[in-house]
Specification:
CATH class: Alpha Beta
Radius of gyration: 16 Å
Shape: globular
Strand order of the largest sheet: 3-2-1-6-9-10-11
CATH topology: Rossmann fold
Order of helices and strands: HHEHEEEEEEEHEEE
Number of domains: 1
CATH superfamily: NagB/RpiA/CoA transferase-like
Number of strands: 11
Structural class: alpha/beta
Largest sheet: 7 strands, mixed
Number of helices: 4
Helix content: 25-40%
CATH architecture: 3-Layer(aba) Sandwich
Distance between the termini: 23 Å
């Protein structure tokens, strides 16, 4: 990786963590309710489609209210499971209330008896995003590898979940960075444009 971009991402990541803490303190659980109220109608997916969410950690917007609503609307749900460093995430079927494993960083994951699935929609956590659909995560590359794998199999819609305050002018980009199609914030969905 280009040393300049690596340093730019590191600096942006540190600033974004502080911005996200402030946004979480300001909005709390209300941000999750507002995201759930928007739903996913804006991407035009049908009930029965598989939507992979994530188990929120730290100050991430919690997708649980949205996932509960999606289940009630007839969508099938999944959550990611880490398979190891430098590997894509494995998505396993999940239903609210399922027993869970606790993995690295305290992240809840579906048990091994849950079947793996290839989702149609992937909800993605992030620290910062730009209008082009590039995101800054924690630096492990898990979602980039996952989206790359899934997009080779079929059309997949990637939707970042974020506080409005996490939008930046430009996220430093490497060749392996996968773009989001949409970012859903409490104020509404943003269609990411290649510019």
């Amino acid at each position: 990786m280009n040393e300049t971009k690596l340093n730019a991402k590191k600096e942006l990541r540190a600033a974004a963590i502080e911005r996200r803490k402030a946004a979480f303190a300001r909005h709390g659980a209300e941000a999750s309710r507002m995201i759930a109220a928007h739903g996913l109608d804006f991407i035009g997916v049908n009930a029965g489609s598989v939507v992979s969410g994530f188990a929120a950690i730290n100050e991430e917007i919690n997708p649980a209210p949205l996932m509960t609503w999606l289940q009630a609307e007839g969508f099938r749900l999944a959550l990611p499971v880490m398979q190891g460093k430098s590997k894509p995430l494995l998505m396993r079927s999940w239903t609210p209330g399922d027993a869970m494993n606790v993995a690295a960083w305290g992240i809840a994951e579906p048990l091994e008896d849950k079947p793996s699935v290839d989702p149609d929609v992937v909800l993605v956590p992030l620290l910062a995003f730009d209008a082009r659909g590039y995101r800054l995560g924690y630096g492990g590359g898990f979602y980039d590898r996952t989206l790359q794998r899934l997009r080779k199999l079929k059309p997949v819609v990637a939707v970042g979940l974020a506080y409005d305050e996490l939008r930046v002018d430009a996220v430093p980009v490497e060749s392996y960075d996968e773009r989001l199609d949409w970012v859903l914030t409490p104020s509404g969905p943003l269609h990411c444009l290649d510019s």
